[in-house]
Amino acid sequence: MIATLDYVAQTFDRFNALCFEGSLVRPPMRLSRAHGFLGKLTFTRRRNLLGSVRYADFVLVVSVAFDLAADVLDDTILHEMIHYYILSHQLRDTSTHGRLFRQMMDNINTRHGRHVRISHRTTESERIAGPTPRRHLIAVSHLRSGTTGITAVNPAYHDRLRRLLPRMSEVERCEWYASADTFFDRFPRSRTVKIYRIDPADLDTHLHNATRLE
């Protein structure tokens, strides 16, 4: 099925009562034709005079570029609702899909028989005809701090960035991949050194079918 705003709102209300004890205020909702995600939660970060960050201006966005089974669409909405619960309650997590997110996801799956996952690999039958998936050139930087970052590289600047990235003082080593995973659509194609921090577990999921480049 293809999402509608009415369906997303009704599903949100149902899971709010079932899984979150009605603690969530229904946020603005929007449909998108993007092929880069099934669902996402957008928000802004607001910093007060003391430097503390609060999350606000939430919008739940669901893509209509896919014809999904009802259970997959429901789990997609529920996935974003977990993000919404964490951020709207101003809770801290270890990463985007960190320890708290995974604990809540596992608890909901166990208690309510759901199959919420970190990511969903779309099939050809789910895709509504649209643009050919983009090919991405991805540099994975392992940083001396113990964290991981990625750079989606503009192919015309590949040689330049391949030289510059290993020279960065915070970079311990780099790996290069080619991928058509739509997850990487959200990252700008860099002409300069821009490293985006990412959860290694999330990254491994989306590099599963990537080609390692020497």
Structural description of this entry:
The protein is an alpha+beta fold and 214 residues long. The chain has 2 domains: 5-112, Zincin-like (2-Layer Sandwich); 136-213, no CATH class. Helix content is 29%, strand content 24%. The chain contains 5 helices and 8 strands. The protein has helices at 5-19, 70-88, 99-112, 158-164, 200-206; strands spanning 29-32, 39-47, 53-63, 136-143, 148-152, 171-179, 196-198, 211-213. A 5-stranded antiparallel sheet has the order 7-5-4-6-8. A 3-stranded mixed sheet has the order 1-3-2. A hairpin with a 5-residue loop joins strand 2 and strand 3 (53-63). Helix 1 (5-19) packs across helix 2. The radius of gyration is 19 Å and the shape is globular. It starts with a helix and ends with a strand.
CATH topology of the largest domain: the name is Zincin-like
* CATH architectural group of the largest domain: 2-Layer Sandwich
> What letter string, H or E per element, gives the SSE order?
HEEEHHEEHEEHE
CATH level-4 homologous superfamily of the largest domain: Metalloproteases ("zincins"), catalytic domain
Sheet/helix structural class: alpha+beta
| Order of the strands making up the biggest sheet | 7-5-4-6-8
How many strand elements?
8
- Low-pLDDT runs of 5+ residues are none
